[in-house]
Structure formats: C-alpha cells, structure tokens
Amino acid sequence: MLDGPRGATPDEFPSAELVRAMAAGLRGEALTEERAAEVATDLKRGIGHARAVAALNDMNAEPGGLAAALARLARPARRER
Known about the structure:
57% of the residues lie in helices and 0% in strands. The protein is mainly α.
C-alpha cells in the first residue's frame, strides 16, 4: 500500500517538504515552495489513480491492465452532448 511516513494520510503525503528534499537529494535541484506544492499535488493525484486501479483489478490476471487503466483514468472525461 502507498502509505506515507508515520501513518500520514493520503492527503498529507507526499508533502511539499518531502518533494523539495527529494528534488535536492536525487536531482540536485532546488524547488520553490510553490513548485514543490504543485508537484506534490500531481503525485497525490497519481497515487489516487493507482489506488483506484489497484482496487478494481487483479494485477496478476492481465499484466497490461494497470497501464491501460491508468491511461484511461488520465484522459479527460468525455462530455455528452
């Protein structure tokens, strides 16, 4: 499961602080607090999609199912006319 450190809730993880630390440690980049918050929001969305897909699929039944479901979730919803 994709839980945060020390029991953090999905809304709290990953934090902008963690994103800034990872950017500095892994890539040697300094992110502004605003940019780190944007990246954290995107990561939270991705984690949410992965959790939704995992809940709906047996990953052993269809190996390509996760990728297909994530691609489907990433597309904007179609508007009905």
